[in-house]
Amino acid sequence: MRKVFQAELQTIGEELINLSKLVAEAMERAYESFSNADTEQAQEVIAADARVDFLQNKLDEHAIDILALQGPVASDLRMIVGSLRMSASLERMGDLARHIAQLTRLRFPDKVLPESMTGTFDQMADLNIRIANKVGELLATRDLNLAAEIIDLNKQIDELHAGVFRAIAADDWNQDAPTTTDVTLASRYMERYGDHGVSVARKVNYLVTGEWEPQLE
Amino acid sequence: MRKVFQAELQTIGEELINLSKLVAEAMERAYESFSNADTEQAQEVIAADARVDFLQNKLDEHAIDILALQGPVASDLRMIVGSLRMSASLERMGDLARHIAQLTRLRFPDKVLPESMTGTFDQMADLNIRIANKVGELLATRDLNLAAEIIDLNKQIDELHAGVFRAIAADDWNQDAPTTTDVTLASRYMERYGDHGVSVARKVNYLVTGEWEPQLE
């Protein structure tokens, strides 16, 4: 029984890792479409999100089956319930990447970002992709240093996000109102994507140590 | 055993209803602070959100205890797992009401909204408060007509949200860029709040009927 359970738990872990890879790729491709005003690629990202939703649903059904058939308790139970929370965060990361791609489509053939903002958003996208990749690594290895690193990367996103609002409020901001709206939304999507990565990292840390706040070794 | 379980399930239901009341009140008071540039009331809403987080956490621990001690299966198990999802949605509604209050504080002593937008936002806030109240009623009565009504109210919010973007893109929009950003964010928070209400409504509908899409009788 115990052996079967461990195999099931392993499968759930692999499904989470798979989801984290898909949402890392979704952000990478969504941001590429966003930078290049590539509406075809944006459309592919939007279509691919259905697969993330499908896999999240499959993972959740799998977790419920385990709860029903194996009746896990203590840390095993917490791991299964935690996987439901983590799959929800990963699914939401997929949605946010899709929202970036939707902005691309909405403004096509124009680019969403004014030239002055591309540096900031390049950094936010890069940090988010690194966060999603580290989430996958953390799920695979349970190396909790990765959880602390994810939190640190997300702090950098928060600073960049605040910088976007400062830029919008500055005297030399000369963009039209719809551009201001799009930049605001895109920055918010970037910020939320990172937050969900942190949620997964904290959850793994909690499941391993019982503490929410990861400590660097 | 069965009787104990039903009592536990009842308690979880009451905790969800309690959360829905708190987040309805949070939106009501947050929007009042937002309309009146009342920074004291905004601060109270922000502080009160800790209670929502605490109660969500308590509900989740309770649900995990039930899973561990009673090992429910079939529809009982789905109800418990569903309650974890619903508590997460309700907690997020509390966060979004808090975000509205945070905008109030950020712009104090100015009001966040230009005069031309108050009518639209009054309607969005009113629809959201009605959604949260109907979520509580739905949880209490399982009258699935309420689920369909919630979905309909949320469609009205989506239309108002789209109207905000049209207003921002119109020739006569003459607000400065930070105002445009705040209006964009506030509208997004309103839209997301309603979406989470719909998530809870669909979940209740699914648990009762096995279908995601509520049908009006």
TrEMBL record, chains A, B:
**InterPro entries (alphabetical):** PhoU (IPR028366), PhoU-like_sf (IPR038078), PhoU_dom (IPR026022)
Cytoplasm found in the keyword field? yes
Q: Which domain of life is it from?
A: Bacteria
Q: Which GO terms describe its cellular component?
A: cytoplasm
SUPFAM superfamilies, per this entry?
A: PhoU-like
Write out the coiled-coil annotation as residue ranges.
Answer: none
Q: Where does it live in the cell?
A: Cytoplasm
Matching entries from Pfam families are given as: PhoU
GO BP annotations listed: intracellular phosphate ion homeostasis; negative regulation of phosphate metabolic process; phosphate ion transport
Q: Which residues form the PhoU domain?
A: 18-103, 122-204
> What Gene3D superfamilies has UniProt attached to this entry?
Phosphate transport system protein phou homolog 2, domain 2 (1.20.58.220)
Q: Which UniProt keywords apply?
A: Cytoplasm, Phosphate transport, Transport
Q: How does it assemble?
A: Homodimer.
> What is the role of the protein in this entry?
Plays a role in the regulation of phosphate uptake.
Query: What family does this chain come from, according to its entry?
Result: Belongs to the PhoU family.
Protein name as annotated: Phosphate-specific transport system accessory protein PhoU
Name the source organism: Zhihengliuella halotolerans
